[in-house]
Amino acid sequence: MHDVVIAGGGPTGLMLAGELALAGVDVLVLERRETAELVGSRAGGFHARTLEVLDQRGIVERFLDEGQTVQVLALGATALDLTDFPTRHPYTLGLWQNHIERILLGWVEELGVPIRRGVEVTGFEQDDGGVGVHVEGGSPVPARYLVGADGGRSVVRRAAGIVFAGESATRSALIAEVQVAEEIPSGVRHDERGIHGLHLMEDGRTVRVVVGEGRVGPAAEPTLEDLSAALTAVFGTDFGVHDPTWVSRFTDATRQAESYRTERVLLAGDAAHVHFPAGGQGIGLGVQDAVNLGWKLAQVVRGTSPDSLLDTYHAERHPADARVLQHTMAQTGLQGGNSRIAAVRDLVGELAAFDEPRRHVTGLLSGLDVHYDLGAGHPLLGRRMPDVDLDTPEGPRRAYAFLHAARPLLIDLGVEGRLDLAGWADRVDLVRASYDGTWELPVLGIVPAPTAVLVRPDGHVAWVGEGSDAGLREALEAWFGPARD
């Protein structure tokens, strides 16, 4: 019996597999695709907080080496500057999903995670002892827990009977990679059918096409003829499209699972939420779901923490994801082509020129302002730990360097080094250091300097010392299990 089976080997499933492997959990990935290589480019990158998460694991340079950074975000037609945000990654990374998956797969393979390809998950059954994962043409795969990371049409979610609530589609768009026989226009076009554009890919031959249909297209897989008709309706020509690598359809449907967990079955990524790709936040949300869930699931599997710790996954990620889904619906509204929507777009652009609205929206888009409700206290509580430069007895180190192994971290910044981890030293790393600088958070600005911080493996702060150790033991037990002799 495996500790955890993950249905789906996309970015979310791979990230979760890596997190669990770092924690020593026996994890198996089941992927329905026969080959490791994703056909086509698909999604196009991620934002600052996702880059920080990858930095926390020591693998961000693998992505930066292959992608292109841009120091602005888009709100409708308005560019938002984030160069003044307090992060080592004040930019968006442009990198196609096929490359993202390839890089993540390389990391996961280094960690020894087995991946079974060409395996179609069809359902499951569960009881108090575990989960039997049903697969097409084979015997059930036994596991203690199952995570559905199998996309917006998730079989796991449907088999679990979890309601996928939200807004139905009002329009759709086609996306494809093709060859063309005519010169393509540059730039992006807005009209009543949506946003349209053609982009020459890295090979100098293949053209990536996105074209709105002005309606909700049929459920059937789109064809080259559908793409030709949509292009002709917008541009007056189909540019002689031929030899498609792939053609797909996406809609502005916005839905979220009412629960991210039912007993031993959990959901992550698109299986838990779908939205229009405005703002480019899809892959990032899945990665952040994975790093929130991974360490919690590992602790429950190892018996370090009670099963109830898994309830905090839904409690934290559901509202964080819901906030982004609301924003993507607003972004979708700004993309209309009529004069009334254009007027709203212009007004939003004027408002975004002011610093406070800009910082508010940029914090949301970048993911840097994510705040889990861990109760009242210091402004750092529940927020991502800044990657500050620490002075340690071994020399200067970045805070994120201590998170590469995905272990909890207590950073003692007290002059006398009086904090200790008696009872938790086997699970939590202790770093004694000093920090000479201010503590700045996105949107909030400068905050009072702490004397210690307890950082979870996902990089969020679980406790803040303000001159004493009051509440530390309670936080350690709540997040990392009871003390041991």
UniProtKB/TrEMBL annotation:
Its cofactor is FAD. Gene3D superfamilies: 3.30.70.2450, 3.40.30.120, FAD/NAD(P)-binding domain. One of its GO terms (molecular function) is oxidoreductase activity, acting on paired donors, with incorporation or reduction of molecular oxygen, NAD(P)H as one donor, and incorporation of one atom of oxygen. InterPro entries: FAD-bd (IPR002938), FAD/NAD-bd_sf (IPR036188), RIFMO-like (IPR050641). Keywords: FAD, Flavoprotein. The keyword Transmembrane does not apply. PANTHER family: BINDING MONOOXYGENASE, PUTATIVE (JCVI)-RELATED, TRK SYSTEM POTASSIUM UPTAKE PROTEIN. This is FAD-binding domain-containing protein. The lineage of its organism: Bacteria, Bacillati, Actinomycetota, Actinomycetes, Propionibacteriales.
